[in-house]
Specification:
- The complex is a heterodimer.
- Chain A is mainly alpha-helical.
- Chain A has one domain (about 40-165, about 195-275): MetI-like fold.
- Chain A has helices at about 10-35, 40-50, 50-85, 90-95, 100-105, 105-115, 125, 140-165, 165-175, 180-210, 210-215, 225-235, 240-275.
- By secondary structure, chain B is mostly helical.
- Chain B has two domains: about 5-50, no CATH class; about 60-295, MetI-like fold (Orthogonal Bundle).
- Chain B is built from 15 helices and no strands.
- Chain B has helices at about 5-20, 25-55, 60-70, 70-105, 110-120, 125-135, 140-145, 155-165, 170-180, 185-190, 195-210, 210-225, 230-235, 245-255, 260-295.
- Chain B is globular.
- Classes of the chains: A mainly alpha, B mainly alpha.
- At the A-B interface, helix 1, helix 3, helix 4, helix 5 and helix 6 of A face helix 1, helix 2, helix 4, helix 5 and helix 6 of B.
Chain lengths: ~280, ~300
């Protein structure tokens, strides 16, 4: 195929401006974090990022994010399934409401969840007699992270479910598969990349989350203190190098996740293209 | 009593068998719908309703008093200023980036797309931190700023910068796939007919992507007005000066002034609901247009 010359104007201007603005707002400031950590020796850096209180915060942040992403994986798939396959009144409103965690400021989500799940809140008061405490415990962190990650799985799985052809399911049924086998062997493999992408997006978002968590977490050192809060605490003590060291650990993990998600999406689009 | 002819009978049976084969029994459907509604009620609806009931718990007068408090009003003003600067900046960037990426081929394009997504992967707290490292007292340009008596951190410019950072990718992300899908035939036709680059942009490209553009602007604005973590790091929490609406909510809440905190929070919740309504309208509108185009083609 002969590639014809692109005649449209504005390439240098638009690409130049894109790179300039990207560097100014994102790349140069982010590089500041990496350069700042060089003020610490490797030994000091290691001491800061593996201090017991910091290690406890990684455990909580990554553990709670993982649990929240798993909950969102299961209920996100369920929500997407119900929204695509079934008809019921108020479906459009429910569909729109799924995006609430994207639209509601995190601080508002934080105080609202705390009010609801604290011991005198609507749900908290009902759980307390059963010995379940949510607010000001690690469980509260899981609840807040589930809230903010909720739309990701629904919104990545929903379009894929919509595009699934009924014929393959009919074929499976006509070959004697029951409904569960059809779901497990036909539908699940088809939506698997989307489900995994949604899960990873939800997990990545949860790791960095701050606003919704700090109100409900109680922020007890070693127990319910998340890593972003450690960074804030160090900043407030003017320990810039220490704050930056912890931030760099989080940045590296976030970047690895971003590349993993991009890889997933590439795999996912290749598979969809191969099918169609 | 009528006897069904064999054809009627078989067609009736095929229909039932078909719907059974690709759908679930009624009780399973009910169970799944109920489970989903229970999940969404616990996580979305109850907290949302709680914002408004907590806000009105001490009566309507307390509610209004919290909203017309001078500190509340100045926080609303600052939030509007930050959004009014961040949204247009990222809008222009989004159009420029989408033009370069969607209409041209160049090396390193996929890396550029990944880099544009970077702010989504960065914790808001870290977004604030990096600007403190540059513009703070001990930062790269800190002494330069002090000499010239310019404040960035603990002042409005820092808040605007942090807001620009966290809302950076929204418009670009909406526009890039949309403009890629539309190709460049129309733009090339315009060029052949003698239109200038700016005329093509204004009269062909932008009208073609206007719903995607609006969608991106709605998302950018919602995040800009609601951002908490990044702004909290750079703001310094000076009442009446550098407090945005979310930060004002936090201060009231930490002072145990719950009714006022929820009253101000209810403004942000209303903003979120308006955002969802606008977003749904834009989605339905663009789905309708896509449907019409499909019909016109077939």
């Amino acid at each position: 195929m002969a590639k014809h010359k692109n005649i449209l104007p504005g390439f240098n201007l638009s690409l130049g401006y894109t790179i300039f603005y990207l560097s100014l707002i994102v790349l140069i400031p982010l590089s500041a974090a990496f350069i700042k950590t060089t003020e610490l020796s490797l030994h000091e850096f290691w001491a800061v990022v593996t201090a017991p209180r910091v290690l406890a915060s990684y455990k909580l942040t990554f553990g709670a994010s993982l649990i929240a992403a798993l909950i969102n994986g299961v209920f996100g798939l369920l929500t997407a399934w119900v929204l695509v396959r079934y008809q019921f009144t108020g479906k459009k409103i429910i569909d729109a409401l799924v995006d609430l965690p994207f639209a509601l400021p995190t601080a508002v989500a934080g105080i609202a969840l705390t009010a609801v799940y604290s011991s005198n809140g609507w749900i908290g008061a009902w759980l307390e007699p059963h010995g379940i405490k949510v607010a000001f415990t690690p469980l509260g962190v899981v609840i807040a992270l589930t809230f903010i990650g909720l739309p990701f799985v629904v919104r990545t799985v929903q379009p894929v479910l919509e595009d699934l052809e009924a014929e393959t399911e009919e074929a499976a049924a006509s070959l004697g598969a029951n409904r569960w086998q059809t779901f497990y062997k036909i539908i699940l493999p088809a939506i698997w990349p989307a489900l995994l992408t949604g899960f990873a997006l939800s997990f990545a978002r949860a790791i960095g989350e701050y606003g919704s968590v700090i109100f409900i977490a109680g922020n007890m050192p070693m127990v319910s203190e998340i890593t972003p809060l450690i960074i804030i605490t160090k900043l407030e003590q003017y320990d810039y190098a220490g704050a930056t060291a912890v931030a760099v650990v989080m940045l590296v993990i976030s970047f690895l996740l971003l590349f993993a998600i991009n890889g997933l999406q590439w795999w996912f689009s290749r598979r969809t293209n191969a099918v169609s | 009593m009528s006897i069904k002819t064999p054809t009627q009978y078989s067609s009736y049976h095929t229909k039932v068998a078909r719907s059974r084969a690709i759908s679930e029994p009624v009780w399973v459907r009910w169970l799944l719908v109920a489970l989903m509604l229970a999940f969404l009620t616990l996580f979305l609806i109850v907290p949302l309703v709680a914002v408004f009931t907590e806000a009105l718990r001490k009566g309507f007068d307390t509610y209004i008093t919290a909203l017309i408090d001078p500190d509340a009003l100045s926080s609303i003003k600052l939030t509007l200023i930050a959004a009014a600067i961040a949204v247009p900046l990222n809008l222009v960037f989004g159009v420029a980036a989408a033009w370069a990426i969607a209409k041209f081929e160049f090396r390193g394009k996929s890396i550029l797309i990944t880099l544009i997504d970077l702010p989504f992967a960065v914790s808001p707290v870290i977004a604030g931190l990096i600007y403190v490292l540059i513009f703070g007292l001990q930062g790269w340009v800190g002494s330069l700023l002090i000499d010239n008596d310019i404040k960035v951190i603990f002042a409005i410019p820092g808040i605007v910068l942090a807001t620009v950072f966290v809302t950076f990718p929204f418009v670009a992300r909406e526009l890039i796939p949309l403009m890629q899908a539309q190709g460049k035939d129309e733009e090339e036709a315009g060029l052949v007919l003698g239109a200038s680059g700016w005329q093509i942009l204004w009269r062909i490209t932008l009208p073609n992507v206007k719903w995607g553009l609006l969608y991106g602007v709605i998302l950018t604005n919602a995040r800009a007005m609601g951002e908490f973590g990044a702004v909290s790091v750079v703001s310094g929490h000076i009442r009446g000066m550098t407090n945005t609406v979310p930060l004002h909510v936090e201060i009231l809440y930490n002072e145990y002034n719950y009714a006022a905190a929820f009253a101000v929070a209810s403004l942000l919740a209303i903003l979120a609901l308006v955002t969802l309504v606008l977003k749904s309208l834009v989605e339905w509108q663009s789905a309708r247009i896509a449907g019409e185009q499909e019909q016109a083609l077939s």
